[in-house]
Every structure is written in structure tokens, then in C-alpha cells.
Amino acid sequence: MSLIKEWVFTTDHKRVGILYLIGSIAAFAVAGLMALIIRAEQYNSGLQIVDTQDTYNVFLYFHGAAMILGFLIPGLTGFMANFIIPLQIGARDVAFPRLNSFSVWLFWAGIILALLTFVIPDKPDVMWTGYPPYSVTTAGNTAFYVFTVHLIGFASILASINFIVTIIYMRAPGMGWNQLPMFSWCTFGAFIIQLIFVPVLAAAVTMLLLDKYVGTNFFNPTNGGDVLLYQNLFWFYSHPAVYVIFLPAMGALYEIVSTMGKNPVFNYKAAVYGGVCGIVIVAGEVWVHHLYVAGMPDWLRIGQMVTTLLISVPVGFMVISLWGTLYRAAITYNIAMLYAAACFFLVLLGGLTGIPLAMTVLTVNLSETSFVHAHFHFVMAIFAAFAVFGSVYFWFPKMTGRSADTKLGVLAFWLNNIGVQVTFWPLFIIGLQGMPRRYADYDMFAGLNFEKYHHISTYGAILTAVGAALMIINWIWSAAFGEKVKNGNPWGSNGLEWTHAACPAGPGNFPEDVTVGPEWSAYDYSKFGK
Amino acid sequence: MKRIYSAIWGGLLALSAGPAMASTAAPARNDYSVSPNEGWDTLWNTVLLDITVIGVVFGFAALYMLFKYKASGPGQIGKLPKLSRAQAWGFALLPAAVFMADDFYLSAKGWTLWNIYRRVPENALEVKLVARQWQWEFDYGQGVKTDTLVVPQGQPVVLRMTAEDVIHSYFIPHFRVKEDVMPGRVTYLWFMPKDLGTYVSVCTEFCGTGHSNMPADVKVVPPGEFQAWFASNRQAAAPAPAAAPAADPAAPAAAPAANPS
After folding, report:
1. Nearest beta carbon to residue A445 from set B76, B117, B200
2. pTM, full prediction
């Protein structure tokens, strides 16, 4: 009974955060299993594992939708934002705790609705993008897709309002904007993007619902609608969603790298005012690069090629700042730092392969091939997932009062890190030769011998699956039986969550109200070791 | 509203126009010495070099620092020098300028080739393509409809494409071309079949059960063989229209035939 009262009705941001973590890891596990089945199916051309092509399509749909809407966005802006931001800015809770509790249960309802996909007869098979007219004419139950987006989207909008207000009004007295820790800054940017763009997605999928079940014709060209309207609305949100994922992930990396390297964040103001603010400004002007081969006007495709390439400028500010933070550092490696180190290379690999894809004319050949598939898995999926994993390890003592098992954690890290490289490098290669995405059967390319690349890729997926399973087992085991941390500040950070709150942090976060002076910085390590 | 958008994009285009003018390879309007797929390979190699250089520089920098700056003992802290105001601006503006220069350089290159991709040569053979779940139908006019794209060697081919049911996307990997095929809209792509042979084309926009089972062969045949093929198919198509085959079948003979075999 008390368990229900303490967890179900909780308004404590830390518990809400952990509820987000549990939900998003559940989505990650199921969607990961789907990925494994998809990879096993692609091992050879033709259908061997699943019974029909339609089942395969349902797995593709679920993998994409659950990973993005159920794992990445809630993992970063649900779990991490909830758990870290109030502690980091010295607040006792978020601005609207009950709204926060409502958000997390909306999210859970979305997760449960998504999981029900597997028991209803006409399973949705519209991919995570849900393009009409297919999503309107299919026998699959598009309503499940629409309502899942509604529930999780509404949770996102409420969380955005909550955290924007929290960061503006509830910072510890004395904490200026130029002292705001990087994770809070980055996530603040992500929430502004969400607040502006999520409603557009909600509108787009609602129109889809009306078209399919009420008989409107927004996307039906025979009655004056337009099929491209949906794609424009969808990507108007869903490209900025990439930054909703990218920004908090970068923010967490700054925290981990700075703390474990005992170095202040390099050129903080450039990273904040050039990087974070720059991305917020550019995020909404590049969505057409998802429609490069969708028959958009030629001048628009060229215009958005320029804006898309210019994203490298704000991202460059953040990259220079992150790299600079390593300069003359004093790095101590723990599992969190290993994940952060891997992220340096993932962001390079994923980011740089985005440059040819930013160029309209190169995308004509590359779009919808395995090259794109590998690109966005590196930059969005794996980079962000590694940032979440690293963050779980980094804040694990703060969440549980215990430390995660190092040996198992390191083993799982290497399996994950090697596994993803082995999985996605072959896809770059065959993508360049024309291997399309979302295929089960690729007999038509028999002369090109794609099967051996798919073999390697599938072995990589198995490595990653073992690594991810070990990692989750480690978290569960360590949360219950791990070694208790004796020191409230095991990593030697100067962040408020480490210097002023216990491990685990109790109700109300801080024993006493927190104030900071004008010279305070979360990245000031001068007291460390003294 | 449209005017405002045009102004914004116009401004951005103007920004990259300078480099575009400066880059030498910009062809005159009807110079098709570069076919799209050859241009694609050249541009890809340029971009691959560009991103490899950036990746190697940053990758080795990270690798070096991650190994070099390990703490040698407990209690050690990093020695990142404090930046002066000028250094802070420098470390912001200099990389930004370098990245922006690279962006405009690539934009100009991409724009140049884009013009080749979108300007259809005047002597192109026009074929209509209708997509439906899950097949392609190539319509040459005069009743000739096939499920295989047969084209004469050495003559550019333009496909005018639409779909009957859902969105498909027509992709010929060998010719580096792809464009979505949608109901309610007509899109196009063109390519230059230089070498004889049979190439595969596939659907790349998710379209349901048979999405990965709608390949079509693209056969590049000598112009004479193409005309014979066309004539026999036209006779097979009943009832044959009275009009004489106008521009289309006549064109192959007149087209410059680059014949390597």
C-alpha cells in the first residue's frame, strides 16, 4: 500500500524521473528485441524468421516508434531532466509537481498503448513516420499510432512548460544564467524546441486520424488534399526532435567529461549562446532535408541544403567546447566516462556522415538506403543512448545510494561499443551500393553479395543485445544489492547535486536551502582533493 | 507570404552564389558532357575526402587527449588555461568561419550538380511511370506499356512519374537517381544510359506488404534494338493508333551514341 502511495502518487521529481527511466528502459528492451528480430530476418534475403512481410513491417514500426517516442525522448527529457535539473539548479522540486506526476503517467499510458500493439488483430504497420496515404488506406490500426503520439506528445508539452518555468524561476538564489550548469542549459533549449514544435506533430497525426476514420480529405489528392502536407507537418516537428534528443545528450556529456576530467567547460559562453541558442534558432528551418526526394520545389531543396549545412556552425561551437574540455584535463575513468569517451567518436561519425545527406543532390542517391539508416543510428540513436547509459551510471549513486558493479558495467560497455560499430559500418557500405531501408527481401541485388554484410551486421546486433542485457541486469542488481556509497560526492564534482544533497537525495533534495555566490561554478574543481 | 519566403531563401541563395560562380565546372545550360551519375561519383569523392579530413583531425585529437590527459594520481585537477576575452571570441569565431566556409563550398558544389540533375536535356526520351502496390508500369505512349524499362543507349531518358494508391519512390542505384512517386502529383527524374546492360531498380518508400518485392529491370540496349523492340510492342498493343511515331522513336537515331562496346 505504501509502495503505491510512495510511487504511484508521488510528486517528487526524483521518483518521477525514475518512473520515466523504468518506462523508457522497458520500451528500449522491447524495441531492442524487435531490432534483433529485424536484423536476424535480414541475415538472409527472403523471410526466414517472421511468418509474413506484414509481421516484419509491424516490427519495423514498433522498433522506430518505441525507440524514439518511448525511449530516447522520455529517457533524455523525462528521466534525465526530471532527476537532474532540480538538483542541479538547487531547487527543491519542479515548479508544478502534480503536473509533473500527470506527465509521467501520460507517458506510461502511451507506453502501455504502444505495447498493446502486439495483442490487437490489425497491428499498426505505418512506420514511425505514418505517411499517408498508406497510413490511411492500410488495414493496420493507425489509431494506435495516433493515440500513442497524442499521449506521449501531451506529456512532452506539459513537461516543457514545467521545466522552462522551473529553470527560469527556481534556480538557487544567486545562480545567474552564466552559472547555469550545461545539462540544464542544453535541456532548456530542448524544452523550448518541444514546446514550439510538438503541437504541430499532434495536429498532423490528428488530421491523419480524421482522414482515416472520419472521412476528411486533408491528405487525399482525389478530393483536393495533398499527400505532402503531412510530411511537411511531420518533419516540422520531427527534425527539431533530433535536437530535443541531441541537446540533453550533449549536456550530459559536458557534465560527465568536465567532472571526470576535473576541467571547467571550455568556452562555456560560446557553447551556450552560440551552440544551444544557435541550434534552437536553426532547428525549425531545415525540415525539408527529409523531403529531398519528395518532389519539393527545386529552389526550396537548395535553400534548405544551405540551412542544413549551416547547422554545423552551432554544433561546431558545442563540439569545440566539448573537445576543449579534454585539453590538459586530469581524467579518471569510470563507466560513465567510458560511455562519454565513446560519444566523442559517435558524434563525429554520425555528424559527418550527415554532411553528404545535407546535400540535396547526394541525398538523391542515398536517401532511404542503409546509409541513412546507419547515419541516424549513430548520431541520434546510439550517441543519445550512450549519453543516457553514461548518465545512469554517473548519477546512479545519487539515485540509489549505491554504486553500480564496475566489472559487469565495463564488460557491457565494450560489448555495446564494439557491437554498434560492427552493426552499422557494413550498412554504410551496402547503403552506398543501393541497399534500401526497411527491406526483408533483397534478392534483386544478388550480384552485389549484400548477404555477407548483413551477416556481419547481425553478429554486431547480437553483441549489442548481450551488452544491453548485461547493463540492465547490472542496474537492477546494483540498485538492490550494490555497494553503498559512503561519500556523498564520489566523483568529486562541484555541482550542487553532489555538494549539497545526500546520496540518495531525500525528499526536498537539500537539508538546507541552497544559495550560491557570484564566483560559484559547477565546474570549479579548486577545492577537489583538499 | 510567398514573397517573404522567396526573399529569405533568395538571401540564403545569394550567400552561396559567390562560391557557385567561382567554382569552375558550372556547365552551360545545355552542356551535358557530365551525366548525373558521373557527377554524383565525383562529388561524393570530394565530400568523402572533406568529411574524412575533419573526422581524422577531430578523432585523433580526441583519442590523443583521452589517453594523454589521464589523471596520474588522486586529487589531481585539470589545467585548462583560462581564456581571455579575445581568445574566447577567437575560439568561437574561427571555427565558425571555417565550418561556414566549408558549408558554402559544399553548397556551391552541390548546387552545381543539382542543376544538372534537374534540367532535362531536350533530346530526352520521355517515358511515363505509374506506380501501384506493388508494381511499376512504364508507358511509352502509343499503347506500349511494360513492366521493364527498356531504353536506348546514349539517349537521355526522363521519367514522368505518378502513383495510383500510396507513395512509392523510384530508385535506380546504378544511375544514382531517385524521386518519390505520389498520387496527385507528377514528379520527374532523368538519367543518361551510357553503357549497355541490365540494371536493377527498386521502390524505396515504404508502401506495404510487397515493398521489398517490386524490383524492375532497366535494360540499356543499342538504339537499333530499341527501335525494333518498340515497333514489335506497338504492334502487339491493340488497337494501334494511326498517328506516326513522332519525336520519340525517331530521336534515338539522331542522338549522339556514345558506344563503348
Report:
1. B200
2. 0.91
